[in-house]
Amino acid sequence: MKLIIAAIKPFKLEEVREALTSIGVRGMMVTEIKGFGTQSGHTEIYRGAEYAVNFVPKVKLEIVVADNLAEQVVEAIAKTAQTGKIGDGKIFMLNVENALRVRTGETDGDAL
Questions:
Q1: Distances in Å between the alpha carbon of 18 and those of 23, 64, 69?
Q2: Which residues of 12-25 are buried (b: 16+ CB within 10 A; e: fewer)?
Q3: In sequence order, what DSSP letters do the residues of the chain get, joined into one string?
Q4: How many CB atoms lie within 10 A of CB 64?
Q5: What span, in angstroms and rounded, lies between the C-alpha atoms of 81 and 79?
Q6: C-alpha distance across the termini of the chain, in Å
Q7: pLDDT tens digits for 81-107?
Q8: Percent of the chain scored above 70 by pLDDT?
Q9: What are the residue ranges in the chain where pLDDT is below 70?
Q10: How many CB atoms lie within 10 A of CB 91?
């Protein structure tokens, strides 16, 4: 199993969710986050005063899938979340040793 963690622009969330559902992803966790990378934030003007926004709003997706679906999930996220502009996000893939569905006690692939 693989854990895929993706940080994307918030307005791309629904598009990415639809793309993942269409390839068979049955669940994901979504968290609103703030961060910076190459963008290093930006400046905004509010009521005539300029101030720095050092952390940019993003959405973090966490998805655990079977090994054979992992590459397809990464490709779907990358293709759907891409705008071609700086700050499109990052995707990480990690190995998952165990999974347990609390309600039924199912483990590993059956728990997904």
A1: 9, 17, 16
A2: bbeebeebbeeeeb
A3: -EEEEEEE-GGGHHHHHHHHHHTT----EEEEEEE-STT--EEEEETTEEEEE-SEEEEEEEEEE-HHHHHHHHHHHHHHH--SSTT-EEEEEEE----B-TTT--BGGGG-
A4: 19
A5: 6
A6: 9
A7: 999 988 899 999 999 999 999 999 999
A8: 94
A9: 39-44
A10: 16
Residue 31 tokens, joined: 């968290």
Taking phi over 0 as left and psi of -120 to 50 as alpha, with beta for the rest, 48 belongs to left
Length of the chain: 112
